[in-house]
Amino acid sequence: MRPLWTCLFGLVIAVLVGCSSKLDDVRGSDAYIKDVQFVGVERFTEKELLTYLHMGETSILPFKERYAFLPANIPVDAKRIVEVYKAHGYYDAEVVSITPTVKAGRIRLFARTPGERRPGKAALKVVVREGEPTLVKNIQLTFPAGRPGIAAADPKVGEVALLKRVALETERAFEVPKLNRSVEQLLETLRDAGYAKAEVRETAEVSPGVGATVRFEIRPGPYFKIGEIKFEGLGNVPEKYVRNESDYAPGKPYSPKLVKKVEAATYGLEVFDTVTIEEVPSETKPGTIDLVVKARPAKPQSIKLGAGFGLDPVRWEQRGSLLYTHKNLFKNLTRFDLRARAGYAELPSIFNPQEHGPIVKFEPTLRQKGLIEKRTVATLSPAFELGIWEGYQFYSPTMRAGLSRFFSRFVEAELAYNFRFVDFFNVSPTLKGQNSILGLDFRDPYTLSYLEPSLRLYLTDSVLRPQNGAIIGAVYDIMGLGGDFSAHRVRPSIRLYWTPHWRITFAGRFEMGWIVPYGAKGGAPIDMRFYLGGADTVRGWGLRRLSPQVFPDGCTPGEADCRGIPVGGNTMILANIEARVRATKMLSFVAFADGGDVRAGVNQFALGQFNYSAGPGVRLDTPIGMFRLDVGFRLNETEYARDQKIWAVHFGLGEAF
C-alpha cells in the first residue's frame, strides 16, 4: 500500500496537469491571443468591436473563453471590421493593417514528448481608418393610401408619438441596428395600443458620404380589444378565484403587455406549474381577441426541512426548521403554511455560554384571497414562541389577524389585529430593580392587544426584488385596546434602489421610530421597544447592543465584568447604504455603511452621539435562499460603545433591506 504523502503528491500533480491541459486548449494552434490593440478606432470601444470578431483577449481564468491565434482568421476579421463599420454608417472605413507578434511558449515541465512546448502568446495590432459617417438627413412616416392616418383616431399612435419611437436621429450616423430597432419599437407601440396585426415596412435610400433618407410605412390594421377569457386545465383550482386575477382585462385595448400581465397574475397564484395563453380572434364579436389560459396544476403540498445557525458577537444559535405548505387547502385557494423551528441559543457565544437556553417557534398561517372581497387577502396566524434574550427568557402565545389589499400596482394597505401574552422567567435581578429606567415598561407577565394599520407605496420595477425606484412605508401600532400597556408606536421608512448596470445596485434605507405612551398604563413592553445592532441594522454592533442599558447594582460601566442589559428605547433613527456588485449569477459582493441611534426618552434625539459602522459583505444566492455574511467595523466611539468590540461578524438570510 502506498504512503499517504505519495497519494497526495500524485493528486497535486494530476490537478496541475489537468489545469495545464485546460490552459493549453487552443484548438490546435501554436499560440493563444493575449492582447488586441486597436489604433484609430473611435466609434467603438475595444470590447464592442471584439464581439463581432474571431479574435479576442484570452483571460488567465480557466473558465473564460480562450482565443486561438489562427493566421487564417486575420483576413476574415479584417472583412468583418469593414462590414461592422458599414452597418454603422461608415462606408469608407478600411483596415490598414493587422500585425501579429507571437512569443513562443516555454518547454513543459511534465511533457509526454521531450522538448514539447506550451502554446505561446500572441498580440495583435489592428490599425483602422474610419473615415466620416453618412448621416441621416430625413425620416418619414407614411400611412396606407386612402386612409387619413391614425393620428386623429388615437394620439398614442399618431405621427408625433411614433416618431419618438424611432431610434435613428437626423444629423446622426445611419446605422442598420438602429433601423431594425426602430421597426421593433414602432411595432411594439402599435400593438400595445390595440393594433394587434400592425405591420411596419422600412426603406432607406443611402448615398455614402452624402446622406440617407429613411421611410417607415405604417400599416396599423384593425383595432382590437380583449374579449372573453377562458380557462383550461385548472384541475382542483376553482375558476372563480383564478378569474378574479384577470377580470380587469376584458374590454381593454389589446396589448401584448396586457396578455403577459394576465399570464403573470395567473402564474402568481403559485398553484400552477405552467401557464400559457393562446390568442384567438372572436368569431361572434368582430374586433375582439379572446384569451384562452391553459394551465397545468402543481402539486399543492410541499415540505422542506433544514438546519442552520446564527452567528453574532453576543449570540450564537443552532436550529432545525420545518416548513409545510398547502397551496389549495379546502379547494378554495386557501394557503396554509406551517413554520416550525427548534434549537438552542448561547449568549454571548457557544464557547462562553453565560446565558443559554432552548429556542422554539411554532407558527401556522392561513392566507386566503377573495374570502371577503376579491382583491383583499385575509390572514390568520396564531403562534407560540420560547426564547431567550440578554437578561431574561420567555414564552409567548400570540395571535395575528389581518386584511391587506393592493390599490393599483403601487399602493398596499394592511390592517392587522394583534394579541400577545408574554411570561418571563430566569429574569436578571437588574431588570426587577425598583430604580430601573424601565419603570412600568417591565411587567411580568403581560398581555397586549393592539391594532396595526400600515401603508406601503411601491415606486419600483419589482415588488419582491426591486432594482430601481423607491418603497415608502409607515407602520402605526395603537396599543391600549386591552392589556397592560398603552402607547402609540410609529415607524416611517423609505428604501431607495438604483441599478446603473446589471452588475451594480446601490441601495439605501432611512427609518425612524417613536413610541409615545399615553394614559394610566402608558408605556411599551421591553420586547417591543426599539433596538439597533445586528445583521439587519447597524452591523458594527452586536445584536440589540445599540440601545440604552441597565447595569447591576454596584457595577460601574467600563469596569471588567460589568456588562449591561439592553432594554430598548422610545426613539430610534436608522440609515443604511449599500453597493451591491454581482460577480456571478450566484455570488455577489457588498460594501456598506450604517448609522443609527436609540434613545430612552420620548422624541429624544442626540445627533452628536450618532453611531457609524461600515464594512464588506458576501452574498450567495441559492435555490433555497440568499445566504449573507457581513463584517462591520465601528467608525466612532459613543456612550454605548463601552466594552463593545470594534468589529462584528453577522451571518443571515436575505438582503439586509
From the N-terminal CA to the C-terminal CA, the straight-line distance is 56 Å
C-alpha Rg (nearest Å) = 33 Å
The overall average pLDDT, rounded, is: 88
Helix content: 10-25%
Question: Which shape, going by the Cα principal axes?
Answer: globular
Beta percentage is over 45%
- Which stretches are low in confidence, meaning pLDDT under 50 for 5 or more residues running? 1-27
Number of strands: 27
Subcellular location: Membrane
Domain POTRA: 224-296
Protein name: BamA/TamA family outer membrane protein
Organism: Nannocystis bainbridge
How would you describe this structure to a colleague?
A hairpin with a 2-residue loop joins strand 25 and strand 26. The longest helix is centred in the N-terminal third of the chain and has 20 residues. The two termini are 56 Å apart. The chain is mostly beta strands and 657 residues long. Helices cover 13% and strands 46% of the residues. The N terminus is likely disordered. The chain contains 8 helices and 27 strands. It has a 16-stranded antiparallel beta sheet, with no helix packed on it. It is globular and about 90 Å long.
Describe the SSE topology.
Elements: H1 4-23, E1 31-39, H2 46-50, H3 73-87, E2 94-103, E3 120-129, E4 136-142, H4 159-163, H5 176-192, E5 199-207, E6 211-219, E7 225-232, H6 239-244, H7 256-267, E8 272-281, E9 288-297, E10 301-312, E11 315-329, E12 334-349, E13 352-369, E14 376-389, E15 392-407, E16 411-425, H8 429-432, E17 446-460, E18 469-483, E19 487-501, E20 504-517, E21 549-550, E22 565-566, E23 571-582, E24 587-599, E25 611-622, E26 625-634, E27 647-653
Parallel strand pairs: 1-3, 4-6, 7-9
Antiparallel strand pairs: 2-3, 5-6, 8-9, 10-11, 11-12, 12-13, 13-14, 14-15, 15-16, 16-17, 17-18, 18-19, 19-20, 20-23, 21-22, 23-24, 24-25, 25-26, 26-27
